[in-house]
Amino acid sequence: MSDEDKMIPAQISKAVRQLNSIRPGYESLLDLYEKIFVAQEKSKMVTKVPAVDIPEETLKKKVSEKFPLANLSDFTVDVDSAAALLEEICGSLRGSGNDYSEAAGLVLDAISRGALDYAGLYSAFLGENEHYFDKASESIGVDKSGLAFFIYNSAKPSLVLFAETISRYLDPNTEWLKGYCPICGSPASLSLFEKDGKRFLCCSFCWHKWPTRRIFCNNCENADDKTLKYYSFDNEQEHRVDVCDKCKSYIKTVDCRNADRFIYPPLEYISTPHIDIKMMEMGFTSCVRS
Ligand SMILES: [Zn+2]
Ligand SMILES: [Zn+2]
Q: Do the strands 188-193 and 228-232 form a parallel or antiparallel pair, or are they unpaired?
């Protein structure tokens, strides 16, 4: 782990303070996610996932057919570290008065009763076993989306590490012109212009970041500049929204050239709900399908 990685939790907290001063009104939302992102980054430092080897023939086929490298079931979760993170996240959200504080308390109650089968839950999550989730959420009294929120957020360090490990099979300089993540196949959540003007997309699930074209719709793969445009907002120098008139989707874009603070993509994604509202009012749909 580099010294840069060790600085990330402090940089997230600093970015949250800066966001609070430029966007008053989001204190509660930012406080919730600061707790989660800082805990995730600290957990990532002690999380271990085994390296995955893709056989040469399989790799060739995936690359030539432009398939993502992994299915959800190929990912692994470090159950011990995810379980510790789950408890930590729930502990810091319980009683904090945000949307998840009640559910956090119920999950902690279930943990203290020994009623939470960690390995089963993470395995059901990766296996997309809806039935298991239905039963688990019923038995601990937390609605399914709340439980999925906690399971995803506590598994996230493992998912991100897995994506980092497997990304060695991808050329980081080759543009990926598909509407899904080259690692896991999920839709992009955020677009970035880096300081040198190159455009990247970030995955909504594993947060892998990949290079793409400036004129490209990540939802329908449209590359026609007549139907692709962007909106910018007077008081939002750091953000713009790229839209596609063909499929009516939008993606929020962070322009790092106009940002003089630390850019942490998951924080940028959640701290701009006013942009989502505006775009939906204008008849566009988010490229992240839920
Ligand atoms: Zn992904
Ligand atoms: Zn499109």
A: unpaired
pLDDT tens for the chain, 290 residues long, are: 677 888 999 999 999 999 999 888 899 999 999 999 999 999 999 999 998 899 999 999 998 899 999 999 999 999 999 999 999 999 999 988 788 999 999 999 999 999 999 999 999 999 999 999 999 999 999 999 999 999 999 999 999 999 999 999 999 989 999 989 999 999 999 999 999 999 999 999 999 999 999 999 999 999 999 999 999 987 788 999 999 999 999 999 999 999 989 999 999 999 999 999 999 999 999 988 65
Distance 102 CA to ligand 1 centre (A): 30
Token pair 């086929």 is at which residue? Answer: 61
Distance from the alpha carbon of residue 97 to the mean position of ligand 1, in angstroms: 31
Residues with Cβ within 5 Å of ion ligand 2?
Answer: 217, 219-220, 222, 244, 246-247
Instruction: Assess contact for 14 and 59: CB atoms under 8 A.
Output: no
Domain boundaries, the chain: 3-169, 188-286
Chain-centre distance for alpha carbon 140? 26
Distance from Cα 73 to the centre of ligand 2, integer Å? 28
Rounded-to-integer distance, Cα 145 and Cα 227, Å: 35
Q: How far is the CA of 71 from the centre of ligand 1 (A)?
A: 10
Q: Residue 219's closest CA among 188, 241, 185?
A: 188
